[in-house]
Amino acid sequence: MKKKKIAVLVSGGVDSSVALALLKEQGHELEAFYLKIWLEDELSYLGDCPWEQDLSYARQVCDQLDVPLHVVSMQQMYHERVVAYLLDEVKQGRTPNPDVLCNQQIKFGAFFDTIDDSYDYVASGHYAQVEHTATGSILRKGKDPVKDQTYFLSYLSQQQLSRILFPVGQYHKSEIRELAKQFNLPTQARKDSQGICFLGKFQFSDFLKAHLGTKQGDIVEHETGKVLGQHNGFWFFTIGQRQGLGLSGGPWYVVSKDAETNTVFISRDYHDVTQHKSGMIVQKYNWFNHHPSGVHTLDVRFRHGPDVHAATVTVAQDGTVQIMLKQESKQGIAVGQFAVLYDGDICLGGGIIEKAL
Asked: Which architecture characterizes domain 214-273 according to CATH?
């Protein structure tokens, strides 16, 4: 690639640090940006979010590589576009994915609006690959199947994708660690982050309690309708959960929730209850390139992870996507999560699961 002017998103972690070092080695004109999402006092009720430590590592890396670093405050935007969505989905008993919205709305959304057109690309430390062609940009899986993050990037627009670089996507995580050592980066021994700040460094239950409070409801056995216990709010439970129920005679699994009655349904036989789910209806589908119609054989992910499932995909004229798995999955299909389709290693886009079939 010819010398380009690139804005590099840095987090203080090893992945974005290596991305910056690789681009520096290639001779590009670089400026680094740290996106500050939370105000220091906004989450004081939960403890300390070590964003200052992250920023300190980012500064050390940028100083070593002689790349200017800018701190961009996006707290209000993040709260309006990501946190509000998260809380609204949880209140409806759905399973949101804030990471997908954070990438679409903040990292490659609002941030794009803060920089001028002099930047040819925006780069990050995501494990994915993007191929820029004359007819459009193509998102491909990262080389490391375990770390691949295309699931979280599935809601980007073609316009956003056309301006992005993912320098670490062609490497396995072990290779990134080795490169960090070769570059002697200050972040070479840092542990991987667990995602966005409040999800990774705080207890999610504490966050929900602070925003949604508590409300006593029944824990009901799915098969018999018998009330087995009480809980403090259905929003504290996720489908498939087996920890924290406080009941004897288990193991018990959460198999469904009723938001209207504040009821949590449990069963000893999670897979027997959920395994008959072999498909899903997906709305608001985002296609990166060609918008297909009719019936197709593709792979689908309906949660982050290396597992993909062969499926028959039917795209209706109104844009609704029906996905039927060729083999029933032991993974629960959660309404509100994203279903992401693949043709080989090409990510075609993603949509929101509205119903399990």
From this structure: Roll (2.30)
